[in-house]
Amino acid sequence: MDPEDTGNMLQDVARRLRRLRKRVHRVEQEEFAQPLGVSQSGYSNFDSGKRPLTLRVALKLCEHYDLSLDWLYRGDPSNLPGLLRRQLKAARKLDQAGAPDDAELVLEKDLGL
C-alpha cells in the first residue's frame, strides 16, 4: 500500500520506523526505544532492518506512538490520526528531496493547501 515499499518487509518497516523517529519525533534511537522496553542496541536492529520487528515491540509502538499495525507492516496510513498522517506525508517529501534529518516538517495544512 505504501508506494515506496520494495517488497522487502524488513527494509520497508525499517524505513517507516526511521522516518517516524527522525522526522516526526526527532529523537535518537535510545530515546525512541525507551518507552518500548528495549535497549538502544536492540531497537537499532529494527531501525536498520537487520531483524524483524517483533509483535511485542510493534504493539508497544502502536500503543505509545498512536500507530497501527497496518501502517507499520503494510504502510497503510488510513487508521492513523490525521495529524500524524500529514506529518508522515511531509516527512516522505523531505526524504525524497534528500533533506537533512534536522529539516523542519512543513504540513500542507500550514501552507494553506
CATH class designation: Mainly Alpha
> Structural class, from helix and strand content?
mainly alpha
What is the strand content?
A: under 5%
Shape: globular
Explain how this protein is built.
The protein has one domain (9-111): 434 Repressor (Amino-terminal Domain) (Orthogonal Bundle), CATH 1.10.260. The protein is built from six helices and no strands. The chain has helices at 9-25, 29-33, 40-47, 55-65, 69-74, 82-97. α1 (9-25) packs across α6 (82-97). The radius of gyration is 13 Å and the shape is globular. The protein starts with 8 loop residues before the first helix and ends in a 16-residue tail after the last helix. The model has no long low-confidence stretch (mean pLDDT 92).
State the main characteristics:
mainly alpha, 0% strand, globular, 434 Repressor (Amino-terminal Domain), 113 residues, 56% helix
Q: What secondary-structure arrangement, pairings included, does this model have?
A:
Elements: H1 9-25, H2 29-33, H3 40-47, H4 55-65, H5 69-74, H6 82-97
